[in-house]
Fold this protein.
Amino acid sequence: MNQGILVYDIGTTSVKSAVFDLSGVLIGSVSVPYETHYPRPGWAEQDPEQFWFAAIQGTRKLLVFPEISSREIAAVGLTGHMNGCLPVDIDGRPSYPELIHADSRSGVQSARIRSLLGEDYLYQETANPTDEHLSLPKILWLRDEQECAFERTAWFLNAKDYLRFKLTGVLGYTDFSDASLTGAFNLKKRDWSWDIIDALDLPRERFPTVRNSIEKGGVLSKEAATVLGLTQGIPVSLGGGDASCATRGSGISGSRQAYVSLGSSAWVSRLSPAPVLDPKRRIQNFFDLDGRSCNVCGTLQSAGIALDWAIRLLGGDKMEDPLDYRRLEKDLEAVPPGSDGVIFLPYLMGERTPHWDASARGMFIGLSLSSNPKTLLRSVYEGIAFGLKEIIDIYGALSMPIDSLILLGGGIRSDFWWRIIGDTIGKPVIIHPFPTQAISLGAAMAAGVAAGIWSSLEEVPGTGVLSGERFTADPEKNKVYARYYTLYQGIYRQVKPICDGLAEIRK
């Protein structure tokens, strides 16, 4: 093996350890799973120590590959899920489990922030809607409900920041991409929003120093190198949030191209020279890996996780073998587009874009005695596609038209699903040639710049060049989906009072 870059990608269900060569080719990849704890409805916690244990196991498994040599690792890159609250003490020990992006326990705190400061002010200040999935309300929940843990906390971090500490021993830093999705960061000033932090009476010193993702965050310590089986002193990048890494790893180029990441959740993102403020507060903004450009992003809260739920509900246990999915989807091809008049709303965990409503709930509309499991399952695939189209339409309304999209993420391994998405969106789509590796590839690019292998992200070989399969929508199917999509858009407004009433009952 020639020189390579080792990457750790902290996901919702596992840490993916991967090695890329300096031309961006994947040499090997290993995923080590760990558990997400759901102790109460709306709670989602992870033990940060498991990130480190999974990274150790993944590295040791990679080093068994004959193509990978520990002596040829030239840099280490980092990425991970965003929107978290990972509190650590002065010695780097977690003072409480990480409240991950899916955690929504801080609804009371989120409402308090909006009431105190005003939704318009918050959006103008942070370029993001404020809700319970962001870091800031979770920090307030920790102060309100876990006073001892809060007092022990020296810094509020995100997942990849903790793993970087375990690798380098360096604490108290984060990058611009993760900072900009905390709900406490001013993207225009490129600094923490001290006015918000002071108004909430939070200690300034617990918010980490913010630097570029493409900077060096330290070097591999002797202790970490020994445990991992690597060489001491390897440069470790500061790293970036998963969505920011996916942008660079997707290979999008030009101002009229975006990408769709389809995993447990799904999002649509494109780059802009500056934050884009939506008068209706539907869109998020967060920094690119270069710390200058902005990702303009819309998020669908439940995508693959909604499909897994529906399969368990209607088709038995969760299927682990990809062949099981292919057999199921082959059967679903017999169901006509539009699922015989059944529409699915994928709001199983509330919804972000465009509604930002934690009380929203999923539902099937149009059931009849002729409806069957296949009808309902196909409607789930289509409902998620409708949700993605609803996000894409916002860009047009903001004078940011999208001409084509790159599709990536684990869900894109299903050609049945991405064809439904393409036919629904009605725009040309490109299937990423390595759909499950785009996030790790972006992290590898940042690490290469941090280590001095390349002088900028634009100099990385193959940047912006994709050779994946291209797909153009079927005009007839697109017409059918357009009629259902119009109905889909109207359902939320009609059922919101019912969802709000059910939320009150649940309280």
The chain has a mean pLDDT of 93. The CA atoms of residues 198 and 204 lie 8 Å apart. The first helix runs from residue 48 to 62. The radius of gyration is 22 Å.
